[in-house]
Amino acid sequence: MKNYIKTGFLSLLCASSFIFVGCSEDYLNDPQPTEIVAESVIFGSRTGVEAFLSGIARRARGQFSSVDAAGVNSIYFARTLKGNDLIHARSWWGFDYDNDNREPTYRRTSFSWEFPYYMINQLNACINGVETSELSEVDKSELIGQARALRGFYYFQLALEFQEGYTSSNRDLPAPPIYTELSTEGKPMGTLGELYDFIVEDLTTAISSLSEDRLGKSYVNVNVANGILARVYLAMSNWDGAEDAANAAYGGNVAAVLDPDSYGNGFDDISNVEWIWGNPQTGDQSNYYYNAPSAFVDPINPAYNNIYINEFFANEFTATDARNTFTYGTATDFTKVTSTKFVFAFSSDIVLMRTAEMILIEAEAKFRQGDEIGARDLMFELQSNRDPMAVKSTNTGSALEEEILLERRKELYGEYGVEWFDAKRLQRGIVRTPNHRIVKTLEPNDKRFYLKIPQVEIDANENIDDSVNSGR
Amino acid sequence: MRTKVTWILTPLLVLLMSFSYGQEKTITGNVTDHEGLTLPGVTVLVVGTTTGTQTDFDGNYTIKASVGQVLRYSYIGQKTTERKVGSSSTISLQMEEDAEALEEVVVVAYGSQKKKSIVGSVTSLGVEEIGNQQLTTVTSAIQGTVAGVNVITSGGQPGSNPTIRIRGVGSINASSDPLIILDGVPFNGNINSISGDQIESMNILKDASSTALYGSRAANGVILITTKKGSYNSESKITVTAVSGFSTPAVSLHERIGNDDMMRYSWEAERNKNIYVSGQSAADAGVNASQSLISNLGYNPYNVAQPVDQNGNLVAGAASQWETDWEDAMLRSAAQRNEYTVSISGGGESSRFFLSANYLNQEGAVRESDFERFTTRLNVESSVKDWLTVGLNTSLSTSKQQFPTQSGSNFQSSYQWIYSMSSIYPLYRRNEAGGLVLDNLGNRIYDYGSTPGQSVNGSRPLLGNENAVGSLFNYDDVNKRTNATVNGFAKIKFSDNLSFKTNLSYENYLFDSNSYDAYDVGVAASVGGRVAQDRDITTTFNFTNSLNYDKTFGDHSIQGTAIFEAYKLKVDALGAQGTGFLPGVKVLNGSTLPEGVSGFVNEDRITSYLGRLAYSYKDKYFIEGSYRRDGSSRFSEDTRWGNFFSIGGSWVISDEGFLANSNTINLLKLRSSYGELGNASTGSYFPYLQGFETGNNELENTGVLLGDVTDPNLTWENQAIFNVGLDFSLLNDRLDGTLEYYSKESIDLIYTKPLPISTGNSGITTNVGSIKNSGYELSLAGRIIQTNNVTWSVGVNASVNKNEITELTQDEFITGTKKWKEGKSLYDFFIQDWAGVDSADGYGMWYKDVLDTEGNPTGERETTKDYSEATRYYQGSSLPDVTGGLTTDLKVGGFDFNMLFNFSVGAQIYDSSYAGLMDGFSRPGYTASPDVASRWTQPGDVTDVPLLLNSQNDFNGTSTRFLFDNDYVRLRALTIGYTLPKDIVGKASLDNVRLYLRGDNLFTWQSHKGIDPEQSLAGTTDSRSSLLKTVSLGLNVQF
């Protein structure tokens, strides 16, 4: 009896072991990742690719690495603070304001390099994935168009951050390398000329394949692609191209695309007719306190509240100007003036591109090509829209140029570093008024208009060594 | 087959019942050992019943039994003896020595072995070592007691677990944590769920022959924890322990400056900026600095509007209205610790049990932080038939931990706050004039440094919209853990030589973390508060079937084991977050806006075939081999199977004829082993797959992003381990010791190789390079005095470990403060070399290489003031040269006195907290160390502290300026106890009563003060709270 039981037990247990052995390969194959989706799903349908493009749009407003290194808005706001119009008091962005946040080991330097390249790698994966997919040619062209416009956009940020402003004579300067596919090898530095040529090609190709349709205002359509191209041409002094692209971006009908009454509403709503492109946010999809500019410039809602407006700049606005959102306090120092242009909440949307900018690009491009009358007329359309009491300019020559550039600052301050962008592309330099907390002057083509190459890149890239920063 | 009834689940009932027979009478007697000495504690049992007793201190016993019944006497080290009850009422006897039983049995992988036959490196911690410390996490007991193990405590939050590294660090990216096996089964819960009183032994397996049977998880060493089981044929015993005490941080913090210094220095930094950066005249610079001081700082604690004059002095009559002591506000002066245990153990002839309940409540250094745990365990085992033994170990543990942020750079992080926030910022809100602002009920309001519209005392330049003290009370960070384990086995004995054992275990670990941010102040005030909750369920299923064969014929013994094992780990995570709560509502149901949900399921499976074959000749020569084949779901089908093995042997030299009768050398044993093991503890469950990560939605549109680039051929890390050791016992067993050498080479390391970030990926996880760890370990234990009344023993252990990178696929990696290069260690600092302060202008300087015309270093150095030009050099290491411990144990009569020290010599630490305090006011509002007093102030000053400058500079950039030697000795545990005499406690019907005073971490001698010397393996700091020093009074009663 005892032996029967024992034999029975043994057989049973051994049998169960062997059943396990037989199944062990299945047993090991069974677990599958639940957090990731396979490539075949993404590139198997237009919906899949659109999910990829949605993720890319979301990342543009994420929390990449720090409060001042969050997304596209962080690159923009760092540029803003390098200028004269806003004054930094304390806390985040101090080193950008000090114009010395450019050493190889600093966060600004590595972020402004890593973030665009991160996005470019995603976009390359999207472009290459769609190209080899079974989607229809119509879908392919539209989807690739969106991705190429964005790729051009991010390469443009790299071009601006890591080299002097573009001129026809400095095309051979070293510039960030171009990647068009997944690589685990670092490439050597390219040239500024190559980089701008690549950007223009991406954008012009995109424009030819895009329509006005899109999933939402954070996605790219033909208007956005034209807007990016208008900025690129401005940076390249291609006035003719800038005029056409800017006009196409806003559609050419000034009255239809401006809404002065909403200017004072806080720049927190992407549905505004003036916004061509932006980052939408909601309470459950927010970058929270990483939301530059509003978390910093807004003087009322509790956040950082650490940015003030240069009094001299504020004084340029008439009382009847819809854009006059300034409050003069009792302080006698740089903390005197605040602006309520940007209202902070977790659900505040972030502006990336507006029609007014495009109108002013078109006006400037007309001026640069000798059409001063056209420039004044177009600018006045905007000026009178903003301020019913506005008087049409009679300026000519450099006075008109200054007026256009001032109008750009008045319209766009705090949004994407317009003052820095103009100073850089026109080799003008930036002079700060003496009421600043830190009074620093940037000479034309000052090295501080661009960053050094980050040390983490140098350390890991066999084709770039420390010498890349000599003389930078 | 006997017919005794044994119910597994009701052993208590059985054991508490007494069977009575007729004609019962009282038997008394005296028991002595083989040398004729009285033997206390001998178990005397009436065979066939549960009646039993123990001999007292003088070896006497009294028991009731009937004529014809048999009394069984058992004692460790003596042969069990039986006597039949006859007419006499007195039965005294002398027991005989049991040579077999004297041999210690050690728990090893998948079984146990006689200590003598062990060929590998195993260190055992018993009840004594574990009982001598106040352990919130049991693995802390390893520190200072086991040679070759580096333990780094995790700070002042009770219930957080130490980092343990056995014989160096053998991995870079894969985990280097040892595998923890609880009663034969991999443990995946939180180790803080096990209380020290439950543990019978904790064995640390260090070499290949002892760990090889764990194959792919063995590379980092194994810790085998065995819980108490009770003993067969023993009287049931109840033990009650109560320990209560107080804790404070074990080391004091870096000092910080007060208001007056803060104002003067801040003024000076601003003045210096005006002169040296902005080029103003000295007079203008002073005036401007005075004027902008308050707007720079945002706050003015003084009763005058401009408290510092143009010469940098406080104006006459200026007095502070507040001066906040953040340390005092943040930390407890005395944190309580209370621990109570009740355990019952015993056993009859065919079953044994252990039941324990433990309650612990310990407060942490930071206010509101605490850890409360209730844990219980029931282990039962029964020999149901002479061929069948079954057992079940069960435990349930539940804990609650209030865990406010105590490290890192979150705004609430308490130590960071103490080291950042100047005393000029108030704890409670102030108005522009400096008066307290009260709420409508007249209560003070925590100042969050973000009162828009208030020009002074409204907006802080640092850590805005937060108050870390307020956050302790206004926010909640609660971790709740519930751990249930059921571990059962059945063992079938087919013959004396062949047996089969099946073991099935299930563990369910529920981790619930709940955080609440206040509705009215701080980070989530603008959205009406936030609740975030995560609930992760980790289940582990383990099924082991083993066949054991054991046979001795003549001088030969063989032992063989064949095992099949299946392992399954499943992590099922769920999280939710919402905002908009009414006051007092802290659960998600009250949320107005759901912010997010998350959830995933991850699985890890391993199937394994393994075996061990051991042979010994004359009990003198031992040889043993192990083999394991593992398949893991973490790797692709092509790369998932790995083979692991070890072989080892030992020779008991002292049993050879020429030493057999030596009194000088009692034991001499040489052993050696070699094996190859694996490590598969990748950070991700599917590290070889690249895919699109969900959860990146753009409003209502589903969004995905491409995950990091991966290596589809990723596979195991492998380690080749060689070990040689000598065990000895000298001078009539008065001096024991072990000397060991090991060499561990890890190849195909799983490492995230940095990629140029321009590729869009910052790294790829692949098998890269190899590391070698080698070292010596020595432990000695001496019994210096050994008399009936006085015993004194001293133990010491020390180990030396060398860590060396032996292969890299690229020339070098720079990672943080380290550079990895062949021939260097993972932990050699590679940072800028501080060259002091230029006495001409007060600027900091660093060294840089002088380059020749081709750009190569000439070997000469020069100084530079441009930090970005400074060359980085190798500078010391965060790994100590020697670590170890010292114990001493003295017993005099009823008194006992025990001390445990641990020490570490030769490591360096980079103190970034101190670096922050020496920033020199480049960022207004940050506090500073009083050491800034020796700053440069005028040309000609010779000092090591640069000028104060309110402008970005690199003076406190990473360099040797903040790299310090980090030698320390810590009195880790001290116990003074008194055991009441047996005759006194006997009158109260008690077996044992002991009172003791215990101090943990009472003294720390360290070469660099201001931080806890145990920070991280990498020798970097993270604003982490300090380990606690605890003084307690304890009472232990057994009956």
From TrEMBL, chain A:
Signal peptide: 1-21
Keywords: Cell outer membrane, Membrane, Signal
InterPro entries: SusD-like_N, SusD_RagB_dom, TPR-like_helical_dom_sf
Protein origin, superkingdom: Bacteria
Chief location category: membrane
Localization terms from the record: Cell outer membrane
This protein's GO CC annotations: cell outer membrane
Stretches assigned to the RagB/SusD domain: 347-463
Entry protein name: SusD family protein
UniProtKB/TrEMBL annotation, chain B:
Keyword Membrane set for record: yes
Superkingdom of this protein's organism: Bacteria
The entry's keywords: Cell outer membrane, Membrane, Signal, Transmembrane, Transmembrane beta strand, Transport
Family (UniProt): Belongs to the TonB-dependent receptor family.
Organism of derivation: Cellulophaga fucicola
Location within or outside the cell: Cell outer membrane
Pfam family, one: Plug
Signal peptide positions (record): 1-22
Residue ranges of every copy of the TonB-dependent receptor plug domain listed in the record: 115-222
Record protein name field: TonB-linked outer membrane protein, SusC/RagA family
UniProt membrane topology term: Multi-pass membrane protein
Cellular component terms (Gene Ontology): cell outer membrane
